[in-house]
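Q: Structure for this?
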Amino acid sequence: MEALRTEKLSKSYGKVRGIIELDLRVEQGEFFGFIGPNGAGKSTTIRTLLGLLRPTSGKGTVLGLDITRKTEEILAHVGYLPSETVFYPGMKVRELIRFSAGLRRRDCGKEGDVLCERLRLDPNRRVEELSLGNRKKAGIVCALQHRPELLILDEPTSGLDPLIQREFFAILKEYHAAGTTVFLSSHVLSEIRRNCSEALVLREGRAVARLGRAELDKSEEEFEDFFLRYYMEGDEET
Amino acid sequence: MTLFRHEVRQGRLSLVIWALTIGGLMAACVFLFPEMKGEMGQVGEMFASMGALTAAFGLDRLNYGTFPGYYAIECGNILGLGGAMFATMAASATLAKEEKVGTAEFLLTHPVSRAQVVTEKLLAVLVQILVLNLTVLVIAALSALAIGEDIPWGELGKLHLAYLFLQIELAGVCFGLSAFLRRGSMGAGLGIAAGAYFLDLIANLSEKAEWLHYVTPFGYTAGGDILSEGLNWSLMALGILWFGVGIVTAYGWYLRKSIH
């Protein structure tokens, strides 16, 4: 079964373009990259898949479930890390993590503790006192603690220091090895190249290329040149 | 009920502050009653000389020298305006604040249906309104006991029930509004509370504007009418209808809207 599938999925905000007739296929068990410059439509795609935004046209499924009708069932099997993590003020990290588990009607206390320890996140801190990186860590714990079938990560490493980034990807690889599908949206080419087996390039709301192992196995410099071609073509067109 | 508990916890401080403020002001008024009772002659003359304002504040239909009459005017105004402000602020912020501060993305990417979100948030608002009203009633009753007055449970019960209905009606309307707005919802809520209060004053000033009593919930909280004629159930039923319209609107819109 496909973890993600869209057919001519479009989302516009009035006259402003979001995504245009996007066809996306991600098989279960993949570590899939979703690349594109800022404003390409990556977050819009994710938010539409998760039911936050209603598509303007087209269809989509997550784990075989329709994105407009089965949102609650989809979200029960998905862990999502947004690009900007905003939490309720006045809560401690531990309360936030417990609240997230409570909304899932799950007891994830043990896994939550392990993740906090591995990411060096103090669960007794208040969320409004957290730095950008620590807020991100809290978001990661909330997204991972229930061991989801599908992980959707939107710019997950922004704000994380290199050591924690390394630990984070080690955790992702463990989850992936245990069967979790990982959908990694990023504009950091190196993390896509290093971790993903396939990737889709998005530009100005449209899918412009699907990259396989051959492209992702190129050296960092070659990959960057290869990828930047899509950017340049976009600039020339505009 | 995880979200319900969370909402109640988030609103706890505001509830405590409002309950103690309204209750404290009402207690202060109750403690002034023995002194006012002794000066009834002067007070009566003063109220009678206020012209149209006497009717606007319902002073022409009440005996200010009795505890229920005094309570209906002084404490009624505090509970009426204060309770309306609390109810409209709590209800108008509850859905809108998630989008305003950006927590909607966190909440709505958990397996909770939008209907569940609306239901649990609505329940939390209603419970907070109930707790505020019970707290205020207890403070008022204890204050009456402290000045040696018998507690007129019948009259107090009717007055407080009318104000509870008022708050629930306004909360329903503002809850509906909250589903639409991302910013400025609290200001809009306060505007509705103040607008409803002043519409009632206008309705009391002129016979031509009496129809406004069907528009503003303050129309069925007039202490003079309640103490002399009892509760106006038809206006209160109309208020519940407005509450229903607000809630149905909230469900209808929030279940379909895109969250930005």
